[in-house]
TrEMBL record:
It comes from the Eukaryota. It comes from Populus tomentosa. Its main location: plastid. The keyword Zinc applies. This is carbonic anhydrase. SMART domains: Carb_anhydrase (SM01057).
Length: 271
């Protein structure tokens, strides 16, 4: 009898711990902003949620934008995107509104016009945030870099549904564990950013902003021209991990205003 009571007590405690974990997770995940087009915390209202988020409403160089081919200046002088990455330890995090792979160690950098930008993290939006001639693609990866003096450069890579993306395949276990167990973070081990394939030397370049609050401006954007592929399952896995009700985490297209978009195309024809 005493043994049964202890077992019962153990079971009850177990369930209480489980319930409290789930509950606290939900509270933690109650995002300060979301993607509900009609919601109080939706993109149209981001700029009113906090004074520091004002640029989301009143900025003049916001992201994402539509990359309309007629509007793009084709140039050959921007130079190849110079990436020098290396493997480093990383953590996969569920930020509630997206999944983020954050490198703890030095994962290398890119160099743009003489400035070095260190790779900090990579996260995903689905469908894509930038559009090409008005069309959204299935997925967009953002590799976020920061210079020593705090300037931000993001490299965007777009995906349509097709063959599996090998980098996402390599993260499958970690993505599943974050999605399924209410764990916010999971150690991803050593992740080599060189495995995030670009596969093209052509890219779009423009000046924009962060696509989530605080929507900070003067972000140097590089969007790889080549559209890569990922499976429906891979896109779904990135979305399932996100605990909010909207089935998107793509910010609406922002006005381009007086900005120009350049398309870098190397002069030689081997691309
Ligand atoms: C934009 O919003 C910020 C923060 O609320 C404010 O400080 C700034 O004055 C606003 N700018 C314009 C042009 O309204
Ligand atoms: C990653 O972390 C482990 C454990 O802390 C450490 O032994 C290893 O050297 C790290 N690897 C790299 C590439 O930083
Ligand atoms: C590159 O940097 C130089 C000097 O800092 C600047 O004058 C030039 O406009 C920059 N070029 C581009 C394409 O940003």
């Amino acid at each position: 009898m005493g043994k049964l009571a202890i077992q019962l007590l153990f079971l009850i405690t177990f369930f209480l711990v489980l319930v409290s974990r789930i509950t606290s997770q939900e509270v933690e995940d109650e995002a300060e902003f979301n993607y509900d087009p009609n919601g109080e915390k939706g993109p149209a209202n981001w700029g009113r949620i906090h004074p520091e988020w004002g640029a989301c409403s009143n900025g003049s160089m916001q992201s994402p934008i539509d990359l309309l081919s007629e509007r793009v200046d084709v140039v050959s002088h921007l130079g190849r995107l110079s990436r020098s990455y290396n493997p480093a330890n990383a953590t996969l995090m569920n930020r509630g509104h997206d999944m983020m792979l954050k490198w703890e160690g030095a994962a290398g950098s890119i160099e743009i016009n003489g400035t070095e930008y260190l790779l900090k993290q990579c996260h995903w939006h689905s469908p894509s945030e930038h559009t090409i001639n008005g069309k959204r693609l299935a997925l967009e990866a953002h590799m976020v870099h920061e210079s020593l003096d705090g300037r931000v450069a993001v490299v965007g890579i777009m995906y349509m549904i097709g063959r599996p993306d090998s980098f996402l395949s390599s993260l499958r276990k970690q993505l599943q564990s974050v999605a399924g167990t209410y764990e916010r973070d999971t150690v991803a081990g050593v992740v080599d950013p060189r495995n995030i394939k670009i596969g093209s030397r052509k890219y779009y370049r423009y000046i924009g902003s962060l696509t989530i609050p605080p929507c900070t401006e003067n972000v140097l954007w590089t969007i790889v021209r080549k559209v890569r592929t990922a499976t429906r399952e891979q896109v779904r896995m990135l979305r399932v991990a996100v605990h909010d009700e909207s089935d998107t985490n793509a910010r609406p297209i922002q006005p381009i205003n007086s900005r120009t978009v350049k398309l870098f195309r190397p002069e030689d024809k081997d691309d």
